[in-house]
Amino acid sequence: RAGIAFHNAAMEPQDRAMVEALFRERDILVLCTTSTLAMGVNLPAHLVVLKGTRRW
């Protein structure tokens, strides 16, 4: 409802795909994510803030 979502590798593949589709359609405006999206998923983002991509 607020247009905010999260995305990470622990999600089911169909859930990740749904979040990505909603972000592309601009139904999700803010996406909080792990490095799963920093590593090659092409999404139309206006602003990207990376805190780091180091794996633990």
UniProtKB/TrEMBL annotation:
Spans through the membrane: 28-50
Family annotation (InterPro entries): Hel308_SKI2-like, Helicase_C-like, P-loop_NTPase
Keyword ATP-binding applies: yes
GO aspect biological process, one term: resolution of meiotic recombination intermediates
GO molecular function: ATP binding; DNA helicase activity; hydrolase activity
UniProt keyword list: ATP-binding, Helicase, Hydrolase, Membrane, Nucleotide-binding, Transmembrane, Transmembrane helix
One cellular-component annotation, GO: nucleus
Keyword field contains Signal: no
Domain (Helicase C-terminal) ranges: 4-49
Protein name: Meiotic cross-over helicase
Protein species of origin: Lobosphaera incisa
